[in-house]
Amino acid sequence: MSVSSTRITLVRHGETIWNREMRLQGSRDIPLSEAGLLQAEQVAARLQGEEHHIVHSSDLQRAHKTAAMIAGTLGVDHEVHVDLRERSFGDLEGLTRSEITDRYPDFWEPGHQPESGLNVETFDQLRERALRIITVIADRYEGQNVLVVSHGGFINAFLHKISEGLYGSGVNKLGNTSITRVIREIDGSWTIFEIGCTAHLNEN
């Protein structure tokens, strides 16, 4: 990694009850479960031996709490961004994936455009939002190590965007508190070098 490259570590939040129930959370502010709190402690312990200069997170409490535990363990500042939120699924939030598939069989297909009345953020809108905010953060902390705590759909949409579909949504599944690492190069390009590592959970 060159001197001016920026290392971004992306962490998905810990488990919630809705995760366990396979219920779509989206922009709903669902708290961490007891298991999720333990996972947040475990990922914080995993990251403790690494150098990170700042932690950024979504404002939704499942990501915010995970990030606060990591920032406290690392002894660094924690900043919050609304644009790091999960994709908004509008009227579909609270439903299970199977309930959504029953009602809208093509909903999860690549390129599917949700019905306008559902108030769902499109996948393209999510990809653009993810790239925009991660780029802003990377440029602000050029040459540093930045940790971002967000959501599975958000992180995968970002990976999908920077890899032109080779990785991310439809390809990778990201477990709770999984670690994904990318580099923002000095020329503005991105390099992906780890996706969805949960070794800290397997060790406990």
From TrEMBL:
Gene3D superfamilies the record matches: Phosphoglycerate mutase-like
SUPFAM superfamilies documented for this protein: Phosphoglycerate mutase-like
InterPro entries: His_Pase_superF_clade-1, His_PPase_superfam, PG/BPGM_mutase_AS, PGM_Phosphatase
Taxonomy, superkingdom: Bacteria
UniProt xrefs under PROSITE patterns: PG_MUTASE
PANTHER family attached to this UniProt entry: BROAD-SPECIFICITY PHOSPHATASE YOR283W-RELATED
Protein name in the entry: Histidine phosphatase family protein
Organism listed in the record: Tumebacillus lacus
Top-level taxonomy: Bacteria, Bacillati, Bacillota, Bacilli, Bacillales
